[in-house]
Amino acid sequence: MAGAPEGMTSSEKIPPAGSGPHMDTLAFSAIEANVPGLSEVILRKLNLKNYEMLFKARRGANEFGIRTYHDMFRRMEDTYTFCAKCKVLPEALPPGKTLLRCKRCQNVYYCSRECQRSNWSTHKKFCKKLKLAAIDRLMEWLVYTGDIPFALTPWSKPETAVAGWDEWFDMQPNLEEKLQTVLETRRMVLLWTNAGKPRPSNEELLASVRRMVTDALSRPLTLGLALRLFGLAPATGRPIHIHVAGASHAETLDARPSDYDELLRMFPENDVADSATERSPLLSAPPFGNVYMTGFKGLYHDFWETLVETGKAARPAMVVAFHPGFHASPELTEGWLPTLLLLRDYNIPTLCTLYSEQEFRRSLQILTELEVKLTHQGPNPFQSLRFEQAQANPNHALVSSNAYLLAFVGALPEIDQLLTIKSESPQSILGT
């Protein structure tokens, strides 16, 4: 992990999460390593002095100091504003000089025509998708305001007949009317009045609404797919506990009760109870619901030892890790190893989602070396269709949330036999 960003003292270094490395801190360090000074810009735009203040602010301990919509969108854009070629930040430019923005994608910046020309051979490969990413980055605000997704209805088909997004959209009654309604909302007008960028065409905005709907629903539908793949589709009166390992803010502090409501529509005969995080998780408690979600922002094997083994949390029917990142560095692989071995040895059905094919192949290699019994692998039919760029390296292959799946249960037969023998007493092995 990189050292503290320039301008921070040693006591202000990015704090580790729990007793091991965490993707939140790793991502912050990666930004600083790719564009020196950018992490400090992000903190400054949030009126924060160091990463510890950001950590507290996420828990409501600080105000971000944003007073207007224009200020909010400007600060969001400022964290992407640096020369894509030489990485220079705006404040390092000579007085009176500003960064130039690509007119095609409205997403990538350059400090000079020379940098733009020299970078074009690389940028042109990603320019079209970066335009979509720039639109979606702003449209994400409408997810937080509740304008996206539009009003949804119970599924008109069994979950086995919905193979992907095409079938899902086909089920939505009055789809075009609902999409058009989103374009006419007051917040859509506020967004593009204050975004500091030209408003895209209605056709581009409609396509973005579709992508953002898939982004908002990718997690619950991926969970529903996993329940079906593992043969755990909810049944009335049978509580199912799902644990989120390596949970991020999306599954903990930022989680909302409605985030997984699509599971209700996918399995309409059941209820879904969401227990967000870092609190004592739910045991089974009908009639409140049949599917229980528990996320823990920390090392899952610590959660298991302190809560599951002591009976304070129910043993999970399934564990899911959204973008666990154990492929990203030796430190993260080492931090995840006890959890992966625990899930393997206790035969817990486990699902991991990955951002890209490269991440998928690296993670697959790690799981193969651990000799887990893989049950499903490959592209996820319910991946987010939103394009996401690397914040510190925009001219790079864009990725999608939950793009690939890796599912496993237990160990390969040879390893499983060894584990069984180890768990038995010498007398029973000898038959005495």
The count of β-strands is: 9
From the coordinates shown, what is the CATH architecture of the largest domain?
Answer: 3-Layer(aba) Sandwich
Note the total helix count: 16
Strand order of the largest sheet: 4-5-3-6-7-9-8
Beta-strand content:
5-15%
Helix proportion: 40-55%
Uncertain runs are 1-26, 53-64, 273-282, 421-432
Shape, per Cα inertia axes? globular
Largest sheet: 7 strands, mixed
- Per the CATH scheme, the topology name of the largest domain is Rossmann fold
Order of helices and strands: HHHHEEHHHHHHEHEEHEHEHEEHH
Mean pLDDT: 79
- Write down the Rg: 23 Å
The first-to-last residue Cα distance is 53 Å
Q: What's the CATH C level of the largest domain?
A: Alpha Beta
Structural class: alpha/beta
Give the count of structural domains: 2
